[in-house]
Design a protein that fits this description.
The complex is a heterodimer of chains A (222) and B (75). Chain A is an alpha+beta fold. Chain A contains 9 helices and 11 strands. The chains are: A alpha+beta (222), B alpha+beta (75).
């Protein structure tokens, strides 16, 4: 299936390119589909493909020796993953679909060839990598300075949907992996946040009843 | 349609039966491939969303997915 030029134009890697350059880029893309749970990238394997999420959600994570998972980043439509290793060599992390997902992929060798032909892409790559470093610093800040309830509150605020089912659903395990704690701690934090009056727990829903209070617990300063 | 039932990864399930033993609604049963959730009004009527099966599972095979919403859609 041909890749839509507007889709490519919206990718940070290819912003600022004219239509003829975008058409050239599009010829190197291929589509990949995944179902929830599919592992797309394996930690330690050679990084051969840069992926862009078109639909669905993908988690990027590391797994400890005893099997604990730390989610480093949740990739939503429009975002890419495997950026750093595809420019470096070996996958430092794994990636798996959190929902049914559609991806656009471009091979490492093709991206390198395009960067030589269109230097604007190389400049865009620097900007993307800069963003990745900022995201890592935010994660370090979360792990260093927020208590578990504060980190859970922040995750809830970042995942507000309409309840119509269009947003990816979360699980306590996923939140635990995102904030680097045990799932039992996430459950306890839910109860604490409920006692504080910030949320209400319903079947298959976390209802935010006091967003200001939740923001305060999350340590978000106006 | 999105299911409201617990989601079970049979590859992770080691058939220990802990979840079945704690399920208040009786919607979990042991199958050949591991634990299965039976569609039941008892579970969908559960208003407390006990989530205990997810909590007790030693292998993380059971999850109870949820969505985050604002009350009455308010900011």
């Amino acid at each position: 299936m041909p890749i839509n030029l507007d889709t490519i134009r919206g990718m940070p890697y290819f912003s600022g390119l004219d239509d003829s350059a975008l058409a050239a880029v599009s010829r190197y893309f291929f589509e990949k589909k995944a179902v929830r749970g599919d592992t797309l990238v394996f930690e330690g394997a050679p990084a051969e493909v840069l992926y862009f999420v078109v639909a669905g959600v993908v988690k990027v994570f590391k797994t400890s020796a005893d099997g604990k998972e730390q989610i480093l980043h949740v990739i939503r439509p429009g975002d890419s993953f495997n950026d750093v290793p595809v420019l470096g060599g070996i996958n430092l992390v794994s990636a798996a679909a959190m929902s049914a997902a559609v991806l656009n992929g471009i091979k490492k060798k093709d991206l390198e060839a395009l960067s030589k032909e269109y230097p604007r892409i190389a400049l865009n790559v620097i900007n993307v990598l800069s963003q990745r470093v900022q995201e890592m610093i935010e994660l370090v800040e979360d792990l260093s300075f927020r208590n578990v309830s504060g980190r859970v509150a922040k995750i809830l605020l970042e995942h507000i949907g309409t309840g119509g089912g269009e947003n990816p659903r979360l699980t306590q395990q996923e939140i635990a992996a995102m904030i680097g704690t045990a799932r039992e701690m996430v459950g306890r934090s839910f109860r604490t946040l409920e006692e504080e009056g910030a949320i209400k727990i319903e079947r298959n829903l976390i209802v935010i009843t006091d967003k200001a209070a939740l923001r305060k617990i999350a340590g978000i300063i106006e | 349609m999105v299911s409201n039932m617990p989601v079970i990864d049979t590859e992770k399930c080691d058939k220990c039966g802990l979840c079945i033993s704690i399920c208040k609604c009786g919607i979990l049963v042991m199958g050949d491939d591991g634990v299965k959730a039976i569609e039941s009004e008892d579970c969908s009527l559960c208003t407390t969303w006990c989530n205990t099966c997810e909590l007790v599972c030693p292998t993380g095979a059971i999850t109870c997915p949820f969505e985050v919403v604002l009350e009455d859609g308010r900011e």
